[in-house]
Amino acid sequence: MKFRHDFRLKTNGGSYLEYEADNVIMRLDFFDNLLRCALIKDPEHLFPTWAVSPNGECPMEGRDRLSQEGFETICPDIREEEEKLFFEHCGLRFSIELHNFRITAENEKGILYQDRDGLAYNFDGELGDGTVHFTRREEDQKIYGLGDKSGHVNKTGRSFQLGTGDAMGFKAEYSDPLYKHLPFWIAENKAGSFGIFYDTYSNGSVNFGAEHDNYFEPFNSIRYEEENMVFYLIFGSVQEIIQRFNAMCGGIAPVPKWAFRYCGSTMEYTDADNADERLRGFVNKCEEEGIHAGGFYLSSGYTQIRDKRCVFHWNTDKIPSPEGLSSYFRSHGLEIMPNIKPAFLSTHPLYETIAENGWFLHYKDGTPAVFPFWGGMASYLDFTNPSAYRFWQECVRDSLLKYGYRNLWNDNNEYDVWDKDVYAYGFGKEVHARQIRPLFSYLMARAGREVCLKEADYSGTEPFMISRCAAAGMQREATTWTGDNYTDFHDLRFNHYQAMTMSLSGFCFFGQDIGGFSGPKPGKELFLRWLQYAVFTPRFVLHSWKPGEPSTMPWLYPEIMDSVKRIFDLRERFVPYLYEETKKCAENNLPLIYPVFLKEPDYDMEADCYLCGSKILACPVFDEGTTEVNVKLPSFADWQLRGEDNIFKGGTYVTVPCAPEDLPVWFETV
């Protein structure tokens, strides 16, 4: 009956319960510090998960989404009275109204989590198509997370798309969607905090108070295309929730030490006819300027056939010896990360071979699905086809590893597929491709990492994988960055908020394109301020594409090179610290940089300063024309300014002069 669903016990498995009403199953799994909830309407189409893998191992074809393997299960004492369930779990008192299965979790401070009154779940299409879930919105709620979302750190009052796109030149204050698909957020209210993660790759939307309905109490909501719903409630402090989310997803991949050094990147060099000369010139220029670089991001110009970019094809007119180029870089202590894209233009030399083998996303009749992509029509490789997966690995091995390229830059992998008539192989269970778009980017990064670990010699270090698109589970395979940002003081500030949002979403190694990717050339002041900000961020990469303007390189302004060089020297000084702190972060499933309130809950969540590792408070300048930093020092420690003799007591307000040409302001714990 519409709007009325009375559930009855179907299975009591001790550590899980299944209730049924009107051919719908509601399942609860009890784990240490977690409660998993599943609404199963179509068991035959319950797709596996690649996001959740608490033991760190996930089969290529995915894991049963309802598996308990790797979790610490709990068997709570359940009692049923007057059409309600009661139990205690994770230090909370739970009650569930079996009429419409409304869940409430509370403690001595009040209600921590509650489903919306009336109807919270889309049992029989009452709330539209696909999955819909409404939860009660407390008046004092704060919301953190969702990946690389724009705006302030606290997302309350906003609504966002659940999806990904190629958002070049995005505005960090309001653009949406961006490059990450992460239906995970942390809610905080007077009763405490909880995290919620929806284990899905479907497109959809989330709302944290932008939507109102006169017939219901204030609510948050999520909508997405998939009919089945599996979500996790994660309990603890904000920091503990992040740790438990990362642990649930299988942990954080290690990062080699060289990746913390300055890495160059520009499309200008590889698009040039004399690309080999320009690239070798980068190495020489760094040495001439005394800049210790760690590597270079090799943009896709190296793959060009005339004006088309053809992944895995080497343009030997521009780079006569791919092996010679990699050897040259490595002999000077630098690594190269070649750019690879999962779309093959229809003019690509390998296109017909891939099409004949059925390795592309396809229409119902089996013909390749086509999409606009970088100056032509292209088809996306279907990584859910094991043969296509292995083909990609062979291409990585034969076109890159063979020539000494041991690290991969996975780019343009958002899979811009909206057509419901496009299908993926789905590991033998055909599926609408648009329902699993970010899965392809995960499998792309995973395939590359696997073959690199198998075929390349890293001499005890790790391969470096980076992916622009990311979803839950990607953190165990690759690092990421925040995409093609815009050059502007205003955007620099919101790039900072975006970074704090990333850290609260479970990401450890990430960063922005320093100086901005698109837009105007950064002025001298903005250029220096962006460098000062980025010194204590994990990824330290200058990258740009500004037609008609010079690339954003360290030597962009020769007249301020002394100031730039001091900042680069400072970064090099802190590379050992960043590397060691990141290893600790991986061990503890924590971000490297994060807002102060993660350690001091009452601290301003929108503050300009941020913590880096366990010992550093970075205090950047985001406003044009400002010549000083005003900061309230966190009260959990006393602080030393820039490693000098000045010691300040925690909790005090400090003003420090900081001109654009100065070193950035930072404090270290005493």
Task: Note down, in words, how this protein is organized.
This protein has 670 residues and is an alpha+beta fold. Strands 1-2-3-4-18-15-14-11 form an eight-stranded antiparallel β-sheet. Helix 6 (386-399) crosses helix 7 (437-455). The relative contact order is 0.10.
Largest sheet properties: 8 strands, antiparallel
- What is the count of β-strands? 42
Q: How helical, in percent, are the residues? A: 10-25%
Low-confidence stretches: none
Beginning-to-end CA distance, first to last residue? 65 Å
**Major sheet: order of its strands?**
1-2-3-4-18-15-14-11
- Output the radius of gyration: 25 Å
Strand residue percentage: 25-35%
**Broad shape:** globular
Task: Outline the fold blueprint.
Layout: E1 8-12, E2 16-21, E3 24-31, E4 34-40, E5 79-81, E6 84-89, E7 92-97, E8 102-107, E9 110-114, E10 131-136, E11 142-145, E12 159-162, E13 180-181, E14 184-189, E15 192-198, E16 204-207, E17 219-224, E18 229-235, H1 238-248, E19 262-266, H2 267-271, H3 275-289, E20 293-298, E21 304-305, E22 308-309, H4 322-331, E23 335-340, E24 343-345, H5 351-357, E25 371-372, E26 377-380, H6 386-399, E27 408-410, E28 423-424, E29 431-432, H7 437-455, E30 465-467, E31 470-471, E32 479-480, H8 489-503, E33 513-514, H9 524-534, E34 541-544, H10 561-588, E35 593-594, E36 610-612, E37 616-619, E38 628-632, E39 639-641, E40 647-648, E41 653-657, E42 665-669
Parallel strand pairs: 13-31, 19-20, 19-34, 20-23, 23-27, 27-30, 30-32, 33-34
Antiparallel strand pairs: 1-2, 2-3, 3-4, 4-18, 5-6, 6-7, 7-8, 8-9, 10-17, 11-14, 12-16, 14-15, 15-18, 16-17, 21-22, 24-26, 25-26, 28-29, 35-36, 36-37, 37-42, 38-41, 39-40, 39-42
Helix pairs in contact: 6-7
